[in-house]
Design a protein that fits this description.
By secondary structure, this protein is mainly alpha-helical. It has 10 helices and no strands. Helix 2 (about 35-60) runs antiparallel to helix 3. The longest helix has 28 residues, at about 145-175. The N and C termini lie far apart (about 40 Å).
């Protein structure tokens, strides 16, 4: 019997993102309403979920028995996220795993947080994506209030890049590490790990078991102590 749990989890994330953004595009709000800032954080978290799902697809864990479906879901998530080409992200991400913490690692940069972040963004963002997103934005604002687009489409996606970078790249890989994966990990706290970056802060565990989907990484954490991977 086929295990389709990866597909179900991917569809759940995509559905929740689509439901949330559809409702928020028509939400009549004022900036004095504190609820909107909660909604921004929720939308940011769902954007991060899209990228983490695409990341799982890069490791073939969304639909292990069907590569075409697996890659289609990955491309769908990166399309919704910011019109990223899935194949390029896939290629570069596997370089990260193969050459982690070296000059050939596309995700590693010897610099402070801000320099590293902008290098990270420059590595993956192409000029044509900026143009495509600008075209989409200007078309959508014909039908959707511009303040909704900014608060629930633009800002959450930008914040999500910071969330992914800080918890999934910068914290795990900054500095030197005395382990085979050249990475560290968050201390075990599954609730905090989920809300910060879908357990991706358990980063040593991800490198040690890249075939484990995000929603099972906490189980790997249970079997590896922090002293093994500091």
């Amino acid at each position: 019997m086929k295990n389709n749990n990866g597909i179900y989890m991917a569809m759940l994330i995509i559905f929740l993102w689509m439901l949330s953004i559809t409702m928020l595009m028509r939400f009549d709000f004022s900036f004095s309403n504190p609820l909107i800032y909660i909604f921004v954080l929720i939308q940011m978290h769902l954007y991060t979920g899209l990228f983490i799902t695409a990341h799982d697809a890069m490791h073939g864990t969304v639909a292990p028995a069907n590569k075409k479906l697996n890659n289609f879901i990955g491309q769908l998530c990166t399309l919704f996220y910011a019109v990223f080409p899935f194949q390029k992200l896939n290629r570069e991400h596997h370089k990260h795993h193969k050459f982690v913490h070296t000059a050939e690692d596309p995700d590693y940069y010897e610099g402070n947080f801000f320099k590293w972040y902008f290098q990270f963004i420059k590595q993956y963002l192409s000029w044509w994506q900026v143009v495509a997103m600008a075209i989409i934005y200007n078309i959508l604002k014909i039908y959707i209030p511009e303040k909704n687009l900014l608060m629930f489409w633009v800002i959450p996606s930008l914040l999500s890049t910071l969330q992914l970078f800080y918890f999934g790249t910068y914290l795990p890989h900054k500095g030197e590490h005395q382990n085979i994966h050249h990475s560290k990990t968050q201390s075990k706290n599954h609730i905090w790990a989920f809300f910060t970056c879908y357990f991706f802060g358990y980063h040593y565990e991800h490198h040690d078991s890249p075939g484990t989907p995000w929603w099972k990484l906490w189980q790997v954490k249970e079997n590896i102590t922090d002293t093994d991977n500091g």
